[in-house]
Amino acid sequence: MQSASTTLYQLPSLRGKFQTLLSKAQLFPVRSFFCRPRTRPSVSGSGMRSVIALSGSSSSSYAVDDGFVTLIEYVGKRGINVEDGLVVLLDHIQYACKRIATLVASPFNSSLGKQEGIGAASGSDRDAPKPLDIVSNEIILSSLQKSGKVAVMASEENDAPIWISDDGPYVVVTDPLDGSRNIDASIPTGTIFGIYKRLEELDDLPTEEKAMLNSLQSGSRLVAAGYVLYSSATILCTTFGSGTQTFTLDHSTGDFILTNPSIEIPRRGQIYSVNDARYFDWPEGLRRYIDTIRQGKGKYPKKYSARYICSLVADLHRTLMYGGVAMNPRDHLRLVYEANPLSFIVEQAGGRGSDGKNRILSLQPVKLHQRLPLFLGSLEDMEELESYDDVQQRVNPGYEV
Known about the structure:
The chain has an eight-stranded mixed β-sheet with strand order 4-3-5-6-7-8-9-10, sandwiched between helices. Strands 12-11-13-15-14 form a five-stranded mixed β-sheet, sandwiched between helices. It has helices at 2-10, 12-25, 30-34, 71-75, 84-105, 131-147, 207-215, 284-294, 312-322, 335-348, 379-386, and strands at 38-41, 48-51, 150-155, 162-163, 170-178, 189-197, 224-230, 234-239, 244-250, 255-260, 271-273, 305-306, 325-334, 352-354, 371-377. It is globular, with a radius of gyration of 21 Å. The model is unreliable at 1-15, 24-64 and 115-124 (pLDDT under 50). It has eleven helices and 15 strands. The protein starts with a helix and ends in a 15-residue tail after the last helix. The longest helix is centred in the N-terminal third of the chain and has 22 residues, at 84-105. Strand 7 and strand 8 form a beta hairpin. The protein is of the alpha+beta class.
Protein backbone atom coordinates (compact mmCIF):
# COMPACT_ATOMS: atom_id res chain seq x y z
CA MET A 1 0.00 0.00 0.00
CA GLN A 2 1.04 3.63 -0.40
CA SER A 3 2.22 4.04 3.16
CA ALA A 4 4.59 1.10 2.75
CA SER A 5 6.78 3.11 0.39
CA THR A 6 7.61 5.49 3.23
CA THR A 7 8.05 2.55 5.58
CA LEU A 8 10.78 1.16 3.32
CA TYR A 9 13.00 4.14 3.92
CA GLN A 10 12.33 4.09 7.63
CA LEU A 11 13.64 0.55 8.04
CA PRO A 12 17.45 0.68 8.42
CA SER A 13 17.79 -2.91 7.25
CA LEU A 14 16.04 -2.11 3.99
CA ARG A 15 17.07 1.45 3.22
CA GLY A 16 20.44 0.45 1.86
CA LYS A 17 19.07 -2.52 -0.07
CA PHE A 18 16.34 -0.42 -1.65
CA GLN A 19 18.79 2.26 -2.76
CA THR A 20 21.23 -0.40 -3.99
CA LEU A 21 18.61 -2.02 -6.19
CA LEU A 22 17.63 1.28 -7.74
CA SER A 23 21.28 2.08 -8.40
CA LYS A 24 21.87 -1.37 -9.85
CA ALA A 25 18.98 -0.77 -12.22
CA GLN A 26 21.12 1.93 -13.81
CA LEU A 27 23.34 -0.89 -15.06
CA PHE A 28 20.48 -1.69 -17.42
CA PRO A 29 19.68 1.60 -19.21
CA VAL A 30 16.71 0.20 -21.10
CA ARG A 31 16.26 2.94 -23.66
CA SER A 32 19.88 3.14 -24.82
CA PHE A 33 20.83 -0.52 -24.48
CA PHE A 34 17.65 -1.84 -26.04
CA CYS A 35 17.74 0.56 -28.94
CA ARG A 36 21.26 0.22 -30.22
CA PRO A 37 21.74 -0.93 -33.84
CA ARG A 38 21.13 -4.65 -34.34
CA THR A 39 20.68 -7.13 -37.14
CA ARG A 40 17.77 -9.48 -37.44
CA PRO A 41 17.19 -12.46 -39.67
CA SER A 42 15.21 -11.49 -42.75
CA VAL A 43 11.73 -12.99 -43.02
CA SER A 44 12.23 -13.20 -46.78
CA GLY A 45 15.12 -15.59 -46.27
CA SER A 46 17.72 -13.34 -47.90
CA GLY A 47 20.05 -13.62 -44.95
CA MET A 48 20.89 -11.02 -42.32
CA ARG A 49 19.88 -7.45 -42.98
CA SER A 50 21.08 -4.53 -40.92
CA VAL A 51 18.30 -2.75 -39.11
CA ILE A 52 19.28 0.60 -37.68
CA ALA A 53 17.21 1.68 -34.67
CA LEU A 54 16.66 5.34 -34.01
CA SER A 55 17.71 6.08 -30.43
CA GLY A 56 15.87 8.24 -27.94
CA SER A 57 12.65 6.22 -27.77
CA SER A 58 11.69 3.00 -26.09
CA SER A 59 10.22 1.83 -29.39
CA SER A 60 12.43 1.63 -32.45
CA SER A 61 11.93 2.92 -35.99
CA TYR A 62 13.66 1.05 -38.76
CA ALA A 63 15.28 2.06 -42.00
CA VAL A 64 14.02 -1.05 -43.78
CA ASP A 65 10.97 -3.29 -43.57
CA ASP A 66 12.29 -6.42 -41.87
CA GLY A 67 8.94 -8.21 -41.69
CA PHE A 68 8.55 -7.67 -37.93
CA VAL A 69 5.80 -5.56 -36.37
CA THR A 70 6.46 -3.84 -33.05
CA LEU A 71 3.79 -2.95 -30.50
CA ILE A 72 3.92 0.75 -31.38
CA GLU A 73 3.79 0.01 -35.10
CA TYR A 74 0.81 -2.27 -34.50
CA VAL A 75 -1.23 0.34 -32.66
CA GLY A 76 -0.09 3.24 -34.88
CA LYS A 77 -1.60 4.77 -37.98
CA ARG A 78 -0.41 1.95 -40.23
CA GLY A 79 -1.77 -0.64 -37.81
CA ILE A 80 -5.06 -0.65 -35.92
CA ASN A 81 -4.78 3.14 -35.56
CA VAL A 82 -5.78 3.75 -31.95
CA GLU A 83 -5.88 7.32 -30.63
CA ASP A 84 -2.53 9.11 -30.60
CA GLY A 85 -2.75 9.67 -26.86
CA LEU A 86 -3.25 5.96 -26.25
CA VAL A 87 -0.19 5.17 -28.38
CA VAL A 88 1.90 7.49 -26.22
CA LEU A 89 0.51 5.94 -23.04
CA LEU A 90 1.20 2.40 -24.25
CA ASP A 91 4.75 3.35 -25.13
CA HIS A 92 5.32 4.50 -21.54
CA ILE A 93 3.63 1.41 -20.08
CA GLN A 94 5.75 -0.95 -22.17
CA TYR A 95 8.88 0.94 -21.11
CA ALA A 96 7.92 0.53 -17.45
CA CYS A 97 7.36 -3.18 -17.97
CA LYS A 98 10.77 -3.58 -19.60
CA ARG A 99 12.34 -2.04 -16.51
CA ILE A 100 10.35 -4.37 -14.26
CA ALA A 101 11.38 -7.35 -16.40
CA THR A 102 15.02 -6.35 -15.89
CA LEU A 103 14.57 -6.02 -12.13
CA VAL A 104 12.75 -9.33 -11.80
CA ALA A 105 15.55 -11.12 -13.65
CA SER A 106 18.33 -9.28 -11.83
CA PRO A 107 20.52 -11.04 -9.24
CA PHE A 108 20.23 -7.88 -7.13
CA ASN A 109 16.53 -8.37 -6.37
CA SER A 110 16.96 -11.39 -4.09
CA SER A 111 16.88 -9.44 -0.84
CA LEU A 112 14.13 -7.11 -2.01
CA GLY A 113 11.94 -9.98 -3.11
CA LYS A 114 11.39 -10.92 0.50
CA GLN A 115 9.00 -9.49 3.04
CA GLU A 116 10.88 -7.85 5.87
CA GLY A 117 8.47 -6.37 8.38
CA ILE A 118 6.54 -4.13 6.02
CA GLY A 119 2.95 -3.90 7.21
CA ALA A 120 0.02 -3.95 4.83
CA ALA A 121 -2.63 -1.27 5.15
CA SER A 122 -5.28 -3.94 4.61
CA GLY A 123 -5.44 -7.69 4.15
CA SER A 124 -3.23 -10.38 5.62
CA ASP A 125 0.53 -10.50 6.02
CA ARG A 126 0.49 -13.04 3.20
CA ASP A 127 -0.55 -10.26 0.81
CA ALA A 128 1.48 -7.47 2.41
CA PRO A 129 3.44 -5.49 -0.20
CA LYS A 130 7.01 -6.66 -0.68
CA PRO A 131 9.82 -4.21 -1.48
CA LEU A 132 9.92 -5.38 -5.10
CA ASP A 133 6.18 -4.61 -5.35
CA ILE A 134 6.90 -1.08 -4.16
CA VAL A 135 9.73 -0.61 -6.66
CA SER A 136 7.54 -1.87 -9.51
CA ASN A 137 4.73 0.43 -8.42
CA GLU A 138 7.06 3.43 -8.43
CA ILE A 139 8.36 2.53 -11.88
CA ILE A 140 4.85 2.41 -13.32
CA LEU A 141 3.78 5.62 -11.57
CA SER A 142 6.85 7.44 -12.89
CA SER A 143 6.17 6.30 -16.46
CA LEU A 144 2.52 7.32 -16.27
CA GLN A 145 3.46 10.74 -14.92
CA LYS A 146 5.95 11.26 -17.73
CA SER A 147 3.45 10.20 -20.41
CA GLY A 148 1.33 13.30 -19.88
CA LYS A 149 -1.73 11.20 -20.77
CA VAL A 150 -2.97 9.96 -17.40
CA ALA A 151 -5.35 11.70 -15.02
CA VAL A 152 -5.32 9.10 -12.26
CA MET A 153 -3.59 5.83 -11.38
CA ALA A 154 -5.16 3.26 -9.07
CA SER A 155 -2.80 0.54 -7.91
CA GLU A 156 -3.12 -2.54 -5.76
CA GLU A 157 -0.15 -1.15 -3.81
CA ASN A 158 -1.80 2.14 -2.86
CA ASP A 159 -4.60 2.80 -0.37
CA ALA A 160 -6.21 5.41 -2.61
CA PRO A 161 -5.96 6.46 -6.26
CA ILE A 162 -3.22 8.92 -7.16
CA TRP A 163 -4.34 12.00 -9.08
CA ILE A 164 -1.70 12.83 -11.68
CA SER A 165 -3.02 15.46 -14.06
CA ASP A 166 -6.23 17.45 -14.56
CA ASP A 167 -6.03 17.18 -18.33
CA GLY A 168 -4.87 13.57 -18.73
CA PRO A 169 -7.43 11.77 -20.91
CA TYR A 170 -6.92 8.29 -19.40
CA VAL A 171 -7.29 6.38 -16.15
CA VAL A 172 -4.96 3.44 -15.44
CA VAL A 173 -5.61 0.66 -12.92
CA THR A 174 -2.80 -1.80 -12.23
CA ASP A 175 -1.39 -4.67 -10.24
CA PRO A 176 2.30 -3.79 -10.70
CA LEU A 177 3.79 -7.19 -9.82
CA ASP A 178 1.39 -10.10 -9.46
CA GLY A 179 2.84 -13.23 -7.85
CA SER A 180 5.78 -11.46 -6.25
CA ARG A 181 5.71 -13.58 -3.08
CA ASN A 182 6.96 -16.51 -5.18
CA ILE A 183 9.75 -14.62 -6.88
CA ASP A 184 12.54 -16.20 -4.81
CA ALA A 185 11.61 -19.54 -6.39
CA SER A 186 11.81 -18.05 -9.91
CA ILE A 187 8.12 -18.70 -10.47
CA PRO A 188 6.69 -16.53 -13.28
CA THR A 189 5.29 -13.15 -12.26
CA GLY A 190 3.35 -10.52 -14.13
CA THR A 191 2.03 -6.97 -14.44
CA ILE A 192 -1.69 -6.36 -15.05
CA PHE A 193 -3.19 -3.09 -16.27
CA GLY A 194 -6.47 -1.65 -17.52
CA ILE A 195 -7.09 1.67 -19.26
CA TYR A 196 -10.27 3.77 -19.12
CA LYS A 197 -11.22 7.19 -20.45
CA ARG A 198 -11.34 9.94 -17.84
CA LEU A 199 -14.94 10.79 -16.92
CA GLU A 200 -15.00 14.45 -17.89
CA GLU A 201 -18.39 14.96 -16.25
CA LEU A 202 -16.63 14.54 -12.89
CA ASP A 203 -14.03 17.25 -13.48
CA ASP A 204 -15.64 19.78 -11.11
CA LEU A 205 -15.64 17.40 -8.14
CA PRO A 206 -12.98 17.53 -5.39
CA THR A 207 -9.77 15.75 -6.41
CA GLU A 208 -10.09 12.78 -4.05
CA GLU A 209 -13.70 12.16 -5.05
CA LYS A 210 -13.16 12.31 -8.80
CA ALA A 211 -10.03 10.18 -8.49
CA MET A 212 -12.01 7.46 -6.72
CA LEU A 213 -15.04 7.58 -9.03
CA ASN A 214 -12.84 7.48 -12.14
CA SER A 215 -11.10 4.40 -10.74
CA LEU A 216 -14.35 2.60 -9.93
CA GLN A 217 -15.60 2.39 -13.50
CA SER A 218 -17.27 -0.81 -14.64
CA GLY A 219 -15.08 -3.16 -16.65
CA SER A 220 -17.47 -2.71 -19.57
CA ARG A 221 -15.97 0.78 -20.03
CA LEU A 222 -12.38 -0.42 -20.52
CA VAL A 223 -10.77 0.84 -23.72
CA ALA A 224 -7.65 -1.34 -23.39
CA ALA A 225 -6.14 -3.89 -21.04
CA GLY A 226 -3.08 -6.05 -20.87
CA TYR A 227 -0.73 -8.16 -18.85
CA VAL A 228 3.00 -8.77 -19.08
CA LEU A 229 4.27 -12.24 -18.21
CA TYR A 230 7.83 -12.33 -16.86
CA SER A 231 8.96 -15.89 -17.53
CA SER A 232 11.31 -17.71 -19.93
CA ALA A 233 10.15 -15.02 -22.35
CA THR A 234 8.66 -11.62 -21.54
CA ILE A 235 5.24 -11.58 -23.17
CA LEU A 236 2.80 -8.68 -23.44
CA CYS A 237 -0.81 -9.68 -24.04
CA THR A 238 -3.19 -6.85 -24.97
CA THR A 239 -6.66 -6.05 -26.15
CA PHE A 240 -8.07 -2.80 -27.51
CA GLY A 241 -11.62 -4.11 -27.79
CA SER A 242 -11.24 -5.93 -31.10
CA GLY A 243 -9.46 -9.21 -30.37
CA THR A 244 -6.50 -10.20 -28.22
CA GLN A 245 -2.85 -10.04 -29.30
CA THR A 246 0.51 -11.09 -27.88
CA PHE A 247 3.90 -9.46 -28.29
CA THR A 248 7.21 -10.98 -27.21
CA LEU A 249 10.14 -8.89 -26.01
CA ASP A 250 13.15 -9.04 -28.33
CA HIS A 251 16.03 -8.46 -25.92
CA SER A 252 18.42 -7.59 -28.74
CA THR A 253 16.46 -4.46 -29.68
CA GLY A 254 14.12 -3.83 -26.76
CA ASP A 255 11.01 -4.07 -28.92
CA PHE A 256 7.85 -6.00 -28.16
CA ILE A 257 7.35 -7.93 -31.42
CA LEU A 258 3.91 -9.07 -32.54
CA THR A 259 3.85 -12.87 -32.24
CA ASN A 260 0.12 -13.63 -32.32
CA PRO A 261 -2.21 -11.04 -33.89
CA SER A 262 -5.39 -12.87 -32.87
CA ILE A 263 -5.49 -15.24 -29.92
CA GLU A 264 -8.54 -17.47 -29.89
CA ILE A 265 -8.93 -19.47 -26.72
CA PRO A 266 -10.20 -22.99 -27.53
CA ARG A 267 -13.93 -23.32 -26.91
CA ARG A 268 -13.09 -26.15 -24.53
CA GLY A 269 -9.85 -27.27 -22.96
CA GLN A 270 -8.77 -30.23 -20.88
CA ILE A 271 -7.04 -28.41 -18.01
CA TYR A 272 -8.34 -26.87 -14.80
CA SER A 273 -6.23 -24.62 -12.62
CA VAL A 274 -7.07 -24.22 -8.92
CA ASN A 275 -5.53 -24.87 -5.53
CA ASP A 276 -6.73 -28.44 -4.93
CA ALA A 277 -5.48 -28.34 -1.33
CA ARG A 278 -8.63 -26.35 -0.51
CA TYR A 279 -10.94 -29.08 -1.91
CA PHE A 280 -12.64 -29.84 1.43
CA ASP A 281 -13.35 -26.14 1.99
CA TRP A 282 -15.12 -25.77 -1.36
CA PRO A 283 -18.90 -25.62 -1.69
CA GLU A 284 -20.63 -28.76 -2.89
CA GLY A 285 -21.20 -27.47 -6.43
CA LEU A 286 -17.52 -26.80 -7.07
CA ARG A 287 -16.48 -30.17 -5.65
CA ARG A 288 -18.99 -31.94 -7.90
CA TYR A 289 -17.76 -30.01 -10.94
CA ILE A 290 -14.09 -30.85 -10.31
CA ASP A 291 -14.88 -34.51 -9.51
CA THR A 292 -16.91 -34.80 -12.70
CA ILE A 293 -14.42 -33.32 -15.16
CA ARG A 294 -11.36 -35.09 -13.80
CA GLN A 295 -13.17 -38.42 -14.12
CA GLY A 296 -14.14 -37.62 -17.71
CA LYS A 297 -17.86 -37.71 -16.88
CA GLY A 298 -18.69 -34.14 -17.83
CA LYS A 299 -19.94 -32.73 -21.13
CA TYR A 300 -16.45 -33.37 -22.52
CA PRO A 301 -15.77 -37.13 -22.36
CA LYS A 302 -12.10 -36.91 -21.49
CA LYS A 303 -10.39 -36.69 -18.12
CA TYR A 304 -9.12 -33.23 -17.23
CA SER A 305 -5.65 -32.57 -15.86
CA ALA A 306 -4.73 -30.12 -13.10
CA ARG A 307 -2.11 -27.43 -13.69
CA TYR A 308 -1.58 -24.80 -11.01
CA ILE A 309 1.30 -22.32 -10.77
CA CYS A 310 -0.19 -20.02 -8.10
CA SER A 311 0.67 -17.01 -10.25
CA LEU A 312 -2.47 -15.51 -11.77
CA VAL A 313 -0.88 -14.14 -14.93
CA ALA A 314 0.96 -17.40 -15.64
CA ASP A 315 -2.08 -19.60 -15.00
CA LEU A 316 -4.24 -17.38 -17.21
CA HIS A 317 -1.68 -17.26 -20.02
CA ARG A 318 -1.54 -21.05 -20.19
CA THR A 319 -5.35 -21.16 -20.18
CA LEU A 320 -5.50 -18.72 -23.09
CA MET A 321 -3.10 -20.91 -25.06
CA TYR A 322 -4.56 -24.35 -24.30
CA GLY A 323 -8.09 -23.73 -23.07
CA GLY A 324 -9.79 -24.91 -19.91
CA VAL A 325 -10.50 -22.85 -16.82
CA ALA A 326 -8.35 -20.99 -14.26
CA MET A 327 -10.02 -20.10 -11.00
CA ASN A 328 -9.82 -18.88 -7.45
CA PRO A 329 -13.21 -19.59 -5.87
CA ARG A 330 -12.56 -17.48 -2.76
CA ASP A 331 -13.25 -13.77 -2.25
CA HIS A 332 -9.58 -13.15 -2.90
CA LEU A 333 -8.83 -11.50 -6.24
CA ARG A 334 -9.42 -7.81 -6.80
CA LEU A 335 -12.16 -6.69 -9.16
CA VAL A 336 -10.56 -3.39 -10.18
CA TYR A 337 -6.94 -4.42 -10.76
CA GLU A 338 -7.15 -8.10 -11.72
CA ALA A 339 -10.63 -9.39 -12.57
CA ASN A 340 -11.75 -6.58 -14.87
CA PRO A 341 -8.60 -6.26 -17.06
CA LEU A 342 -8.12 -10.04 -17.35
CA SER A 343 -11.79 -10.68 -18.09
CA PHE A 344 -11.66 -8.09 -20.88
CA ILE A 345 -8.66 -9.89 -22.38
CA VAL A 346 -10.31 -13.31 -22.09
CA GLU A 347 -13.62 -12.17 -23.59
CA GLN A 348 -11.87 -10.58 -26.55
CA ALA A 349 -10.16 -13.95 -27.10
CA GLY A 350 -13.55 -15.71 -27.17
CA GLY A 351 -13.71 -16.85 -23.54
CA ARG A 352 -15.56 -15.73 -20.44
CA GLY A 353 -14.77 -14.10 -17.11
CA SER A 354 -17.16 -14.74 -14.23
CA ASP A 355 -17.46 -14.64 -10.45
CA GLY A 356 -19.19 -18.02 -10.68
CA LYS A 357 -22.60 -16.49 -11.29
CA ASN A 358 -22.21 -13.16 -13.05
CA ARG A 359 -20.18 -11.78 -15.94
CA ILE A 360 -17.27 -9.88 -14.40
CA LEU A 361 -17.49 -6.94 -16.81
CA SER A 362 -21.13 -6.33 -15.83
CA LEU A 363 -20.24 -5.76 -12.16
CA GLN A 364 -20.05 -2.25 -10.72
CA PRO A 365 -17.12 -1.86 -8.29
CA VAL A 366 -18.11 -0.24 -5.00
CA LYS A 367 -14.71 -0.36 -3.28
CA LEU A 368 -11.24 0.21 -4.68
CA HIS A 369 -9.82 -3.01 -3.22
CA GLN A 370 -13.01 -5.03 -3.58
CA ARG A 371 -12.36 -8.79 -3.70
CA LEU A 372 -14.36 -11.56 -5.31
CA PRO A 373 -14.12 -15.13 -6.68
CA LEU A 374 -12.73 -15.27 -10.21
CA PHE A 375 -13.22 -17.88 -12.94
CA LEU A 376 -11.62 -17.35 -16.36
CA GLY A 377 -11.51 -19.67 -19.33
CA SER A 378 -12.97 -21.34 -22.39
CA LEU A 379 -16.58 -20.55 -23.17
CA GLU A 380 -17.91 -24.11 -23.00
CA ASP A 381 -15.91 -24.90 -19.86
CA MET A 382 -17.22 -21.77 -18.18
CA GLU A 383 -20.81 -22.53 -19.13
CA GLU A 384 -20.49 -26.04 -17.69
CA LEU A 385 -18.86 -24.72 -14.50
CA GLU A 386 -21.57 -22.12 -13.92
CA SER A 387 -24.31 -24.71 -14.43
CA TYR A 388 -23.31 -26.19 -11.05
CA ASP A 389 -24.49 -22.95 -9.37
CA ASP A 390 -22.78 -23.37 -5.98
CA VAL A 391 -19.14 -22.73 -6.93
CA GLN A 392 -18.26 -19.64 -4.88
CA GLN A 393 -16.34 -20.30 -1.67
CA ARG A 394 -17.59 -17.77 0.85
CA VAL A 395 -15.73 -19.00 3.94
CA ASN A 396 -12.03 -19.57 4.50
CA PRO A 397 -11.70 -22.02 7.41
CA GLY A 398 -8.22 -22.64 8.71
CA TYR A 399 -6.31 -20.07 6.66
CA GLU A 400 -6.17 -16.34 6.06
CA VAL A 401 -7.53 -14.45 3.09
